[in-house]
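Sample entry was shown:

___
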Amino acid sequence: MRVLFLTLPAKAHLYPQVPLAWALRAAGHEVCIAGNPDLTAEIARTGLTAVPVGAALDQAGMVERNQEREREQSALSGDGPDPEELLKWTELEPGALDHTALQGLFTVATTLVFRTYSPDRTLDELVAFAREWRPDLVIWDTLVLAGPVVAKAVGAAHARLLYGLDLIGHMREQYLHGLDARPLPLREDPVEEWLAPVLDRYDTAFSEDVVTGQWTIDPVPTSMRLPVDLPYLPMRHIPYNGRAVIPHWLTEPPERPRVCLTLGLSLREVLGGDRASVRTLLDAVADLDLEVVATLDAEQLSGVSRLPDNVRAFDFVPLNELLPSCSAIVHQGGFGQVQTALAHGVPQLSLPNGQWDTVPRAQQIQDSGVGLRAADVDHCEAGDLRQMLVRLVEEPAFARTAAAVRGEMLATPAPHDIVPVLERLSAEHRLPAGPA
């Protein structure tokens, strides 16, 4: 079987795909990972085959251009909704958003996200490659709708691999329910309006699986999954941090409770900054009877005159190797941070940065009992953060609950366990091979 993975040009989106890609490769299947040239070298470092497609995105520049376009649109429309606010998918209660709000959400998502990561050039190059290589299965990042387009163009089976909570499936379910209730002339779907002519160009047609997949591979613990009526295939999250070397000090047990303080790589490398205040975080941990390992680089520490005596700062320490020795972790709510902490049963203090699912995931962390969250990241006081961190380390209930969720994850099929299921589903869903 030939399997084509599609990812966003960001390491945080590539890394969750690598364990499954290697499980398929180890089972004897041919595997390629396609993405923008921005990520080609990083894909190659995983030992897997990279397929560069489209133009380099320059995501930092793209963010600036989108913000400039939003300012121009805001100036023209006056007091219209802020597109950036519409992309903060935080209202997850049924009925919290009316149809107008959902319409705006999918309109902005189609314009600023879906089309950005699946432009015409990328689609054409992917389809050309797929018609030559003939994949049996396409596994795609939930934001890269080029994946199902390519699969339909060549008759391959296709599945989403989620990056966090299934926000798209959840919102899409509510949106389609409201759409069905509207008069036929008013049933405007911005996703279909974009993709229908694109699919027609490749001699196929739009269907709802283009948005939510023929099935969905879900690495989120089942107890934390959003209630969406779609076919899910649970898969244990296997932490992968890229190439890593274990430092000598990490092989020695800590003399005091160890805490990891990390703000992740995505905002640092892609969006150009952190939302949480580094100075406030360091003030919060100063003088506590803890050993704090902070993954902060020189730029993040540029406004700090002196590190507290109990803090050691490193540009990078692989979380998968660091967290087993930790009593707690402080993070910005990124998928890799949350999932790796869950995999090792480490209590969490989440300071959600507002990107993608960080706010609802932070609330899940608190509601489930595996940790606590900061209610307002922009106005966090060091004393409040200190108090929450002390609770995580000293109150055993957090560690017990985190251990229980770790047990749930260990009972979930690992990537190599679901390979036979993927083989069966691919055979059921792919179309008979036609001429290349």
The CA atoms of residues 53 and 126 lie 7 Å apart. Residues 2-236+413-429 form a domain with the Rossmann fold fold (CATH 3.40.50.2000).
